[in-house]
Amino acid sequence: MALRISFALLALAAVSVPAQAQDREVPYWATIRYDETNMRVGPSQEYKIDWVYRRKGLPVKVVRVMEGWRLIQDPDGTQGWVAQRQLNPARGALVVGEGESALRAEPSARGAIKWRLEPGVVGALGDCDGNWCEFSVGNRSGWVLQNRLWGAGEP
């Protein structure tokens, strides 16, 4: 009996952690959780779908919270409402700017270039150290200048 209660409590805690992680002061960064996510014109399923995101991991800025809904802003500046469960509190970033960006072996302009990233590449964001941020795309990781990543820094 005690084992069943422990598993039930553990399952409940696992479900509530992502929700609690998104109940914080706005603005904050999040990422799109699924391969397909609907953005609506208002904070309810009763509102029409304005846009469909088809890019899991895309970073978004949460600018307002209303019950189970989040008003988000995407990298293009478009705003709309997404159900909280459609967002992941994990940090991600999008490569922005003109031309390729170097993914370096260390957080320095002198660091060896491991790969070159095209604008539009989405990846997982790690810690930022001064002007550089850890960035991973698939099994490739390294350091990218923070000003080339939308989703890094203060929201």
Indicate the overall shape: elongated
The CATH topology name of the largest domain reads: SH3 type barrels
Q: What's the end-to-end separation, in Å?
A: 46 Å
* Proportion of helical residues: 10-25%
CATH homologous superfamily of the largest domain?
A: SH3 Domains
* Average pLDDT over all residues: 89
CATH C-level class of the largest domain is Mainly Beta
Q: Please tally the β strands and state the result.
A: 14
- How many H/I helices? 1
Structural class: mainly beta
Report the uncertain regions: 1-18
Written as H for each helix and E for each strand, in order along the chain, the element string is: HEEEEEEEEEEEEEE
Name the beta content range.
Answer: 35-45%
Biggest sheet, spatial arrangement of strands: 6-5-4-1-7
Sheet of most strands: 5 strands, antiparallel
Second-tier CATH architecture of the largest domain: Roll
InterPro entries: DUF1058 (IPR010466)
Pfam family, one: SH3_4
Keywords: Signal
Signal peptide: 1-21
Summarize the structure.
This protein is mainly beta. It is 14% helix and 45% strand. The strands form four sheets. Strands 6-5-4-1-7 form a five-stranded antiparallel β-sheet, with no helix packed on it. A five-stranded antiparallel β-sheet has the order 13-12-11-8-14, with no helix packed on it. The protein has a two-stranded antiparallel sheet with strand order 2-3.
